[in-house]
Amino acid sequence: MNWDALLNETFWIDVAIVLGITIASYLILRTILGIVTRRLSKLATGSRTKFLGIAAELLARTSHLLILAFSLLIALKTVELPARWESTMSHGWFIALAFQIALWMDTGVRLWMESLARDGKARNPVTTTIIGIMIRIVVWTMMLLSILANLGVDITALIASLGVGGIAIALAVQTLLSDIFASLSIGVDKPFEIGDFVVFGEVAGNIEHIGLKTTRIRALSGEQVVVANADLLRQIVHNYKRMNTRRIVFQFGITYDTPTEKVKEVAELVKRIIEGIEVAKFDRAHFLGFDDSQLTFEVVYIMQVSDYNRYMDTQQEINLALLAGIREMDVQFAFPTRSIEFIGGRLPEVTVAGMPQQRASTSSQAADESAAQPRGPQSSAQE
């Protein structure tokens, strides 16, 4: 040890100057940081944007140890140092700044995840956690590589090794990675969220859980359906939770013997019924065509709410009002009928169970006589 240097008065003066400037710089930096943080917090209180609030939180979580390091580096600039110390100080500035930026970015990711959970928007917490972890890994990896490069370490071989290792791992777990990236796609694009009612293929139910590999759906029949995320995204998914309105089409028929004037009145009746319902908007009601057993009407209306139970209540109300209105108009709803024509020949002999034999024979004889009488070219009977 160089005891002469320790006994040198200039050395202790430089040490006192460095300590004094370090303490003063530390106090000044903390005071400025506190003032800026409080100012941003006040601005964030009256602002609708979250950027100012996040910036205030980031400044509030600035590392005091790094502030002290910055203060020491500032103080060392005021004294005369050897050349090798100047190079070391330049590396120190870069390391401290890179570490602080990484801390700010890490804190920003944490605040983003906390804000999603606090506001109730994190409907897919697994995906949010994965994204947060991946971003933080990238931040700290970039910080570490930049510090090594600044210190003169050759990171080319390290990056190449990481790339080769990543490719090998990706090939080994290709199926798992496809489901993981599908989960990330669901979390970012949000085609559906937990609680949504979806239909795809033969499955219909509510989303219960969106995991790292699979999505779990509670089917209408009660069982839980587990489907891989990648397979789910390959299908067409109907999300009924996000349906604002519901277009309803239904048909009914009246008999062919209905007069033309009353056929016109039926469409007006349907219009009056639907317009009298608050949550339904009438679209159209038309005499659609001639079917086998009925004159068919097609009715279209728009439900202004998406709730399925409200739709069923409204449809029931329309049906009951339509049933009463049709009866008041003395019009009949059609039901399936079939006409059978019997031309020529002889009717078969019919024996009715439980009837006396003599009565049954008399009935058969009467039927034969009736068939033998002259009649028109055709006869029909309604079932």
From TrEMBL:
It is a multi-pass membrane protein. The keyword DNA-binding does not apply. GO terms for cellular component: plasma membrane. The chain crosses the membrane at residues 12-37, 58-79, 91-113, 125-149, 155-177. Keywords: Cell membrane, Membrane, Transmembrane, Transmembrane helix. It is found in: Cell membrane. Residues 354-383 are annotated as: Disordered. Residues 358-367 have a biased composition (Polar residues). Residues 248-332 form the Mechanosensitive ion channel MscS C-terminal domain. Residues 175-242 form the Mechanosensitive ion channel MscS domain. Residues 135-174 form the Mechanosensitive ion channel transmembrane helices 2/3 domain. One of its GO terms (molecular function) is mechanosensitive monoatomic ion channel activity. Its main location: membrane. It holds the Pfam family MS_channel_2nd. Belongs to the MscS (TC 1.A.23) family. This is Mechanosensitive ion channel protein MscS.
